[in-house]
Write a structure and sequence with these properties.
Layout lengths: L2 E6 L7 H15 L5 E6 L1 H4 L6 H18 L6 E5 L5 H12 L2 H4 L3 H7 L8 H15 L5 E3 L5 H17 L10 E3 L34 H9 L19 H13 L4 H8 L4 H27 L2 H30 L6
Parallel strand pairs: 1-2, 2-3, 4-5
Helix pairs in contact: 3-12, 4-7, 7-8, 9-12, 10-11, 10-12
The protein binds adenosine-5'-triphosphate and magnesium ion.
The site of adenosine-5'-triphosphate has 21 residues, from helix 1.
Subcellular location: Cytoplasm
Keywords: Aminoacyl-tRNA synthetase, ATP-binding, Cytoplasm, Ligase, Nucleotide-binding, Protein biosynthesis
Enzyme class: ligase
């Protein structure tokens, strides 16, 4: 049976991009009979950039609350935080030894996140894709739903799996994981710059809609979102060269389960002064029940911790025997 694995970093409040590009699709796959679904909160990845420890712990619970509020069900999916299952760190090291520096040097996310001072970036940020490969391979996951920004890392995960199978002469030991990129919103863009993706770690809070934002904040962020003075066009071609306009139309389509063409059919000829309040309404209608449910869940952190502990046990039960095989294949002596 297909086994789905994916994760979100507890680096801050989740954004509309995370929700539309990842969480919504996690739920669809969970509810698709015959798929085993494993959803991780990747805290090991989060510390590739420094995190204040108590905020990190809260952020882990907040991602868990967002998972559950979005419709992930611990009875149907395994939900846990990465650091509670040691296979991630263990296989992460093995994958670090399989990956080549030349491959890592091509990763655009490292360049984006390290910025101009790559010398000052952590070793972990550089090795991030090796740990991500390990996350997937530790479960022999076959499919990985992610946003478009993770495409390059997933290709690297496939390369690492193939090189491991080849180096140790164990064909088919690790299945090559299939990226599942798509759905209505694989790449939601920043509200301030239509050429940059919306990110929870962007320094500007105005660049994104957070799942924790209230109705007034959402309306204000959309009102101030960058746009152009042209009215909305009749066809998609009319959005070419207008990244901000295209992004807002795309968000409206995803929120209201329509195609971008259908959205344009409704709004063609209207300016953003008319469109933005309608978009804000759609965003609030969609997100406010989610925010309320997240807050309800966060009022009982002990229950969230229990769900994560239980998920970690189930994840460990899958990963541990696979790790034992990995250690044997690699040639580690194990005598206890
Ligand atoms: P950070 O800035 O800390 O990297 P992020 O917003 O990029 O945060 P991640 O935890 O790195 O979030 O990614 C979680 C999932 O959300 C991944 O599957 C990623 O591809 C997806 N995702 C992130 N940003 C977007 C976006 N703007 N549009 C669609 N999907 C996204
Ligand atoms: Mg990211």
């Amino acid at each position: 049976t297909p086994r789905i694995f994916s994760g979100v970093q507890p680096t801050g409040a989740l954004t509309l991009g995370n929700y539309l590009g990842a969480l919504k699709r996690f739920v669809e796959m969970q509810d698709n009979a015959g798929m085993e679904t494993i959803y991780c909160i990747v805290d090991l990845h989060a510390i590739t950039l420094w995190q204040e420890p108590e905020s990190l712990r809260q952020a882990i619970r907040a991602v868990a609350a967002a998972y559950l509020a979005s419709g992930l069900d611990p009875k149907k999916s395994i939900i846990f935080n990465q650091s509670q299952v040691s296979a991630h760190a263990e296989l992460g090291w093995v994958c670090s030894c399989v990956v080549r520096l030349g491959w890592l040097n091509r990763m655009t996310q490292f360049k984006d996140k390290a910025g101009k001072h790559a010398e000052a970036a952590s070793g972990g940020l550089y090795m991030y894709p090796a740990l991500m490969a390990a996350d997937i391979l530790a479960y022999r996951a076959t499919h990985v739903p992610v946003g478009e920004d993770q495409k390059q890392h997933l290709e690297l995960a496939r390369d690492i799996a193939a090189k491991f199978n080849n180096d140790f002469n164990v064909p088919d030991f690790f299945p090559l994981p299939e990226p599942m990129i798509g759905g209505p919103a694989p790449r939601v863009m920043s509200l301030r710059d239509g050429t940059k993706k919306m990110s929870k770690s962007d320094p500007s809070d105005m660049s994104r809609i957070n799942l924790t934002d209230d109705a007034d904040t959402i309306a204000a962020k959309i009102r101030k979102a960058k746009t152009d003075p042209e009215p909305l066009p009749e066809t998609l071609e009319g959005l070419e060269g207008r990244p901000e306009a295209r992004n807002l139309v795309g968000i409206m389509a995803a929120l209201t389960d329509r195609t971008a063409e259908d959205v344009l059919a409704e709004f063609a000829g209207q300016g953003f002064g008319a469109f933005k309040p309608r978009l804000a309404e759609a965003a609030v209608a969609h997100l406010s029940p989610l925010t309320a449910e997240m807050n309800r869940l966060l009022a009982d952190p002990a229950e969230i911790d229990r769900v994560l502990g239980d998920g970690a046990e189930r994840a460990d039960a899958i990963a541990r025997p696979i790790m034992a095989e990995v250690f044997d294949v690699v040639g580690f002596l194990r005598s206890r």
